[in-house]
Write a structure and sequence with these properties.
single chain; alpha/beta; 32% helix; seven-stranded mixed beta sheet
């Protein structure tokens, strides 16, 4: 178990990220700032978008951090056929996203940033490849009607029913697909367990 020399803050509205961080058995506080913009340069390479957004999110919190606080921010994107799939706004859009993922491979990239009041200390991204089986129209409709994944990038949660019936295999971290590469988060925090390593 880690004993950290600072108060950990998760800057996120995602219940899945909170669930994953809770699994480390490290005390932390969730601090969510709603309605902040998520914008990135249009010419930014797709796999760099989540890291850019994770850093951008950090800027909204840094000025309110106390000296003994360490902030974690993150962003996840789903990339398929050279397109970024965000959160669907309605049933029709969600259906189209799942049809794109069906019988196909897509990439999930999560960017993570660690920040102190002085600024961003460290940031990285993690990538996973997800291979979907072919989904029938009835399966897609069942999932959308029962799980309503409108708060999830790509319109699905791997930990839900759709993951049970549709995921053939994953190359990379399962938890990264959920929204946080928790093994890398742990290793980063472990490296800062000694206060002399934390600038």
């Amino acid at each position: 178990m880690l004993t950290l020399p600072y108060h950990l803050v998760l800057g996120s509205q995602s219940p899945r990220r909170a669930e994953l961080l809770k699994g480390l058995d490290i005390p932390f506080e969730v601090r969510a700032l709603p309605n902040h913009k998520e914008e990135y340069p249009k010419d930014l390479p797709l796999e760099q978008i989540p890291l850019y957004l994770a850093k951008q999110k950090a800027t909204y919190y840094i000025n309110s951090l106390k000296q003994n606080e360490l902030l974690i921010t993150a962003d996840t994107v789903v990339i398929v056929k050279e397109r970024v799939l965000g959160k669907p706004s309605n049933h029709e859009e969600a259906t189209k996203m799942l049809q794109m993922l069906s019988d196909n491979c897509h990439t999930v990239v999560t960017g993570v940033a660690f920040s102190r009041p002085s600024g961003i200390l460290k940031a990285f991204s993690s990538k996973s490849q997800v291979f979907f089986a072919k989904l029938s129209k009835d399966e897609i409709n069942y999932y959308l009607d029962h799980y309503k994944p409108y708060d999830k990038a790509g319109s699905y949660g791997i930990q839900e029913w759709i993951g049970y019936v549709g995921i053939q295999r994953i190359e990379g971290s399962f938890y990264n697909v959920m929204g946080l590469p928790i093994h890398l988060v742990y290793q980063t925090l472990k490296s800062w367990e000694d206060t002399s390593n934390l600038v």
